[in-house]
């Protein structure tokens, strides 16, 4: 486990842990930290985590594994004095949230899965992850990621057309990622197992959220997760791509407030 986990925090109510997408950091949750606790998230306590290697959290020397990131989140909860939290992740963060559900199910009071999927990588996807990992290390640069993923496919077509400032913000965040962290995360994601069996056993309220224009984990992936979760709401956001929390923060926050209300009612 990493010694220091960097986290941004706002609010004081029901704990909501947010786990960022690859290759970003907790900075992607700016509008959630600023706006989600209020009207009426009942002032939720939002904790936006920097996963190891990103933002302010050191990478360390462990072999790549999403299970380590899930254990980091459990450790963060311990240190924050939080017994159970609503845990939410977008894309890679969703993979970590599912790993937490597998390894530490007793720490969940609710589950948010945004723009992610519960199936393991195909051989082709694994090979592509290794291509990227090897390239960024060899070049000591994440330029390849910027060129291949910004603005598309990380952003939806509507965002690319109508939200140029968002593209600038995203580009700056991707450029901040370290090659070592990018390679580590790609290899960790490539080795993750499928999680549909885990989701079928989740006993807390869940929200599956996806952008209608998500080209990386499309609505069909969201539907597959929603089909097995016992207590779930599926929300598809129109005119939104893969980074739904950044592309349409008001709609994203509205949906998450609905999850928080369900958690409160079930508690």
From TrEMBL:
Q: By its UniProt entry, which SUPFAM superfamilies does this protein fall under?
A: alpha/beta-Hydrolases (SSF53474)
Task: Output the Gene3D superfamilies linked to this UniProt entry.
Answer: alpha/beta hydrolase (3.40.50.1820)
Classification via InterPro entries: AB_hydrolase_1, AB_hydrolase_fold, AB_hydrolase_sf, Epox_hydrolase-like
Instruction: Give the matching Pfam families.
Output: Abhydrolase_1 (PF00561)
UniProt superkingdom: Bacteria
**Keywords on record:** Hydrolase
Q: Which PANTHER family match?
A: MONOACYLGLYCEROL LIPASE (PTHR43798)
Name listed for the protein in its UniProt record? Alpha/beta fold hydrolase
Q: Which organism is it from?
A: Streptacidiphilus cavernicola
